[in-house]
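To: structure subgroup
Subject: Chain for Friday's discussion

All,

I'm putting the inputs and outputs inline so they're searchable in the archive.
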Amino acid sequence: MKLSDELPVDHRLATVYRYGALLCGLILIAFGALGFADALRPFDTQGETIAGLTTNTTLSVISVVVGLALAAGAVIGGNFASTLNITVGTLFLLSGFAHIFILDKGANLLGFGMTNVMFSFVMGLIIMTFGMYGRVSSKLPHDNPYWQRRHPRHEGGRDPQASRAVAVRLTGSAAAVTGASAPAHADDAQR
């Protein structure tokens, strides 16, 4: 089972994936554009402060590229936007963890500060949430296309064979299950 095959193209969840990708993409593009406006040095490990976050030209380029990728995902939509959101969100979280260890070292080529690490964690979780919304949970509703795809034998949350067996036990007649009209009362059956 591929993740990209589970959601119908026109399903309402696709709207959540699109708007989530677009919102996060625009935030990253704005951050990158503000970094370019300050004419920063490419690999300055101290970084200049933009909107409370430290940055340099390299981080601005990465922010704009990732923001444009998310915006493109919003245009494409559907499963692609969901998978892209999950992937980018995971990369943000990994980046936050990696930069915790190199904050005050020469290897900090992106000029990260502690606020950047926190932003990376928060933005990663937001992007991942948009990508996983309605897709990843142990308690998806039975009308959810992901749940239905994972449980192909079930119709609306019930196994069709089990439903027929229960109906036969409750009505006492196989005719009620097949659609034939069964008498409403036992007295009507004797007449």
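Points worth raising on Friday:
Strands lie at 48-50, 53-55.
The helical segments are 13-37, 57-76, 78-100, 114-132, 145-150, 160-171, 174-178, 186-190.

D.
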